[in-house]
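Lecture 7 notes: from sequence to structure.
We start with the chain below.
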Amino acid sequence: MKARAISLTDRLAWVLVCAMVFSLPIEKVVMLAGFGTLTRVIGGLCLVAGLAAVAARRSMRRPNAGLLLAACFVLWSGATYFWSVTPASTAARFTTLAQLFLMLWLIWEFCRSQARQWWLMRCYVYGAALSSLLTILRYARNQQTYYRRYATAGFDPNDLGLTLALAVPMALYLAPRCGRAWRWLVWLSGLLTVAAVLLTASRMALVATAASFLHAVFTWRESAPTQRVFSIAMLGTLVLGALWLAPSASRERLATLHTEITRGTTLHNRTQIWKAGLKVFKRHPLKGIGAGAYPDAVYPWLGRPSVPGHQYTAHNTFLSVAVETGLTGAACFGLLLAALAAFIWMLRAPERALWLTTLLVWAIGVSTLTWEHRKPTWLLIGLILAVWATAFDRPEKERA
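Predicted structure tokens for the same chain:
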């Protein structure tokens, strides 16, 4: 009876982890009054079930260096409250990071086998496909998020673009490892994702999605003919969509990529925000100005945004971490990324190709977005840690 109870609590926690990951690309579509986003509600239930499972079996997975570095970053971010220029913002950011760390722990604790890792990736790919379908439906109804740009409800087009781009290398990896029926579903999900990226008209997401096809390059020699056709079809959808097939408004915006990089107004505005952030960093290099305090810290140089209710964001995750948490926080975050890169390098070739590509896609995307407190970032960290542990920790693999 006791063994059965332990099995049931573990299984319930695992199902809720899968549901949580599935909900990430659609988290803001469903808002529950008094509770917040769908992902937050599922995450809360998942945490309760996870703690119950750990208590029932009276054991917990031993943390590795990556998990400890993530904990250090979160704790240091919380410590910046004591000298933050906006303590309320820092308290809110620390609460978010603490919740994200719990999500990371749940993935670490319950994703102990390769089969479970594949299921989490499937959940994310299918969630991205549903989000893509909702974006396409909004386009069909002309429900613009911004001027002639589209995203599923509650999402900024740039954030959605990177959220979807991260699903592309996962789809390329999963397709040849699924049964025939599941394979077709993964292929369809990948095509929907690429189509939705085009509708966001996010130039950063276009570059990040294009980079995701490095996975096909890395694995081309070992790939089956059908997998090569699938990769070409997805890449062709992206290229032809950007040139001819996407709505004219999306194509016109995407076509300004080179001009925007060299002398565009958007880049100019962001460089002004980056320069202001660097000035703040020079004044507080070691401890930073407080997690989440970037918007208020740059007001003396940039003034208040012209749009009521808007705030400046760093538009660069690495700069945001350095300015808000100083060299100490940046060191924790940088060591975490270095550990992830080292873990990836030690994996077998197929997994190394997947996670190297996915980490590169993330790095491209967050160079123009503030994503250190976004759920897909922490999902990526959790999956890499889980994959590495499964590959090199035999006792854990046997118990999973």
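Points to note: The first strand starts at residue 31 and ends at 32. The chain has two domains: 1-60, 65-399.
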